[in-house]
Specification:
Rossmann fold; alpha/beta; 39% helix; 2 domains; 11 strands; single chain
């Protein structure tokens, strides 16, 4: 039996809310939009638009997955990040709005520079950072590394879909290992590394801890294992006036600032929309 889109949406929101889903309206809107092809405004104005049994079946199945905690991006197979649409599945983390702050800051500094620009994105995952930078900075050349071949395959698909694959060089290997021969070649090293402490599993929302890949989340007891390596090794690959920009945990500001002060100057910590430290940026010290 069919129903109107707006009426069915109201029922979805109610069901998700009753089952304790965070921001049930957002989840319902994104799921139903993906199934019907209607945008948000059309969903709410759909008093004369019908949703048919096959779509209702798909929506109910999606709701069951969401109620169990699965991220919407995995359910619908995509997400938007920095005005870029990315294919997303369980191989990679779901890109967060906080990471858009990192991209914002990097773009700002890159636009102050002239001539050919090169950036490397360490641990690229879905390719969200590398692709957003290439998409928004004309002629930028990007190298993007990841240790997982299956992850790089997804990132390559996303780059091709956004028509920037010709300016992104995806390389497989741990952190900087695929960059041998590229010493001193990059204007910026950028990364959203794993930074959750190994003992913080119970503190994570179920949709993160249960569903997202742990190797992309956890980094030692204090969450700093990968961040330390990025800070220590990045200077080898940066130009003399290059900079390092990384996402960090809300409780890591003091430790990260201390680590960066050895090799970097003008270290800045940028807060996210909740006022928590989220991005660290520092420039190479003059020799």
């Amino acid at each position: 039996m069919s129903d109107t889109v707006s009426n069915f949406l109201s029922g979805m929101i109610r069901t998700l809310r009753e089952n304790g889903v965070f921001e049930p309206n957002v989840s319902a809107e994104r799921i139903l939009s993906a199934i019907t092809g209607l945008n948000r405004a059309e969903l709410y104005s759909g008093t004369d638009k019908l949703i048919y049994p096959p779509q209702i079946h798909s929506a109910k199945a999606a709701m069951e997955r969401r109620i169990k905690g699965e991220p919407v991006a995995y359910i619908i197979g995509e997400c938007e990040f920095y005005n870029v649409i990315l294919k997303i599945d369980k191989r990679v983390l779901v890109p967060r709005p906080e990471t858009e702050i990192l991209v914002d800051e990097v773009i700002k500094y890159l636009r102050e520079r002239h001539g050919p620009l090169r950036v490397v994105d360490i641990g690229t995952g879905s390719g969200n950072i590398a692709i957003s930078l290439a998409y928004n900075v004309p002629d930028l050349q990007v190298a993007a590394t990841d240790i997982d071949a299956a992850v790089l395959e997804l990132a390559q698909e996303n780059a091709e879909a956004m028509k920037v694959s010709g300016r992104i060089d995806f390389r497989m290997g741990e952190l900087f290992a695929p960059l041998l021969g590229d010493a001193g070649q990059f204007d910026a090293v950028v990364s959203n590394p794993p930074y959750v402490g190994d003992d913080e599993m119970e503190l994570l929302p179920i949709e993160v801890g249960k569903f997202e890949p742990h190797r992309a989340l956890f980094a030692g007891i204090d969450g700093l294992a990968i961040i330390k390596r990025l800070i220590e090794e990045a200077p080898v690959y940066l130009k003399e006036d290059g900079f390092l920009a990384i996402e960090i945990g809300y409780d890591q500001e003091a430790a990260v600032r201390h680590l960066m002060n050895f090799n970097f100057r003008n270290v800045r910590i940028i807060a996210d929309l909740a006022g928590k430290p989220r991005v660290a940026i520092g420039f190479m010290r003059k020799l």
